[in-house]
Specification:
307 residues, alpha+beta, Beta-lactamase, 2 domains, 5-stranded antiparallel beta sheet, 3-stranded antiparallel beta sheet, 13 helices, binds glutamine
Length: 307
């Protein structure tokens, strides 16, 4: 049943003319084929249903923020919430204005400022290379795949052009919210955003969130069930920036998007889902990714709000 629905949706998405706009503010991302579409669903038993370009690696960008949040909570526990809030922002992912009102404390860990603060916390006490290694190894461990790598061209492209993120970081530094040199924190941030993964790998990595903190493939407890619940809550309310309300309304699952066109969505107790379509909507979220997830949750009755 899941397999049939996944194939149907991938076929339907291939035909759609409305594909959104590929991100171009990171020049390297503008080279991606807007016609690409991949979908992978891994259910509680570990069955993988995949279609389209589900084996093609793409830039996970802000989806990495789910995993850096998980790592940072592991390091700092609830003390993390002194450095970053957990309320939806209602503003763009790279908004600067809110930071001034809130004295350098970002609204949530998924907007850029919040994710940079989280990266800074992971970096403290380490060299940038070690911190990045820790993040990459965590992704490889969760996906059970040692071949996951960082796309250096994407990282370099953003490092050259990420003036707005540099502004956010410097602004937070002025309030004492960042502990490390700004260029170190940004370097780690740009590189973890540039991790390249396929839909299948990403759906694997998200499984612990769908199963109360346990990766059912190995039985390993990745995080306590209470923490998995909380990460899902922040994904639901903040995972799509100022499009989070619309995503909850249409899809009804915790989800996290990235400007590479990927979305990781969690159907608690049921499945981990990854979709990729590079064209974005005005809020910087994958347009067809959202459309596909809306169709999927509707046909399988998977919205957390019922039917
Ligand atoms: N690396 C990107 C940036 O900082 C991530 C943004 C995103 O995926 N929404 O702009």
């Amino acid at each position: 049943m899941i397999e049939r629905v996944v194939k149907e949706i991938a076929d339907e998405m291939r035909q759609r003319p409305d594909r959104g706009e590929v991100a171009s503010y990171i020049p390297e991302l503008a080279r991606v084929d807007p016609g690409a579409f991949g979908l992978a669903v891994i259910d509680a038993e570990g069955n993988v249903a995949a279609a389209g370009d589900a084996d093609v690696p793409f830039s996970i960008q802000s989806i990495s923020k789910v995993f850096t949040l998980t790592l940072a909570l592991g390091k700092a526990g609830d003390r993390l919430w002194r450095r970053v809030g957990r309320e939806p922002s209602g503003s763009a992912f790279n908004s600067i204005v809110q930071l001034e009102h809130e004295r350098g404390i970002p609204r949530n860990p998924f907007i850029n400022a919040g994710a940079i603060a989280v990266t800074d916390l992971i970096l403290s006490g380490h060299q940038p290379r070690e911190a990045l290694g820790e993040i990459l190894r965590f992704m490889q461990f969760l996906s059970d795949d040692a071949n996951i790598t960082i796309d250096r061209a994407v990282a370099a492209s953003e490092q050259r052009t990420g003036f707005r993120n540099a502004a956010l970081a410097n602004y937070m530094k002025s309030f004492g919210v960042l502990e490390n040199p700004v260029e170190f924190t940004l370097g780690v941030y740009f590189h973890h955003c540039a991790i390249a993964m396929t839909c299948k790998q990403l759906a694997m990595a998200g499984r612990f969130l769908a199963h109360s903190g346990i990766n059912p493939a190995t039985g390993a407890l990745v995080v306590h069930p209470d923490r998995a619940k909380r990460i899902n809550a922040v994904m639901l309310t903040c995972g799509h920036y100022d499009g989070s309300g619309e995503f909850a309304y249409r899809v009804g699952l915790p989800g996290k998007s990235g400007v590479g066109g990927g979305i990781l969505a969690i159907a608690p107790g049921k499945a981990s889902i990854a979709v990729w379509s590079p064209g974005l909507d005005a809020a910087g979220n994958s347009h067809l990714g959202r459309v596909a997830l809306e169709a999927l949750t509707k046909r399988l009755g998977w919205s957390i709000f019922g039917v």
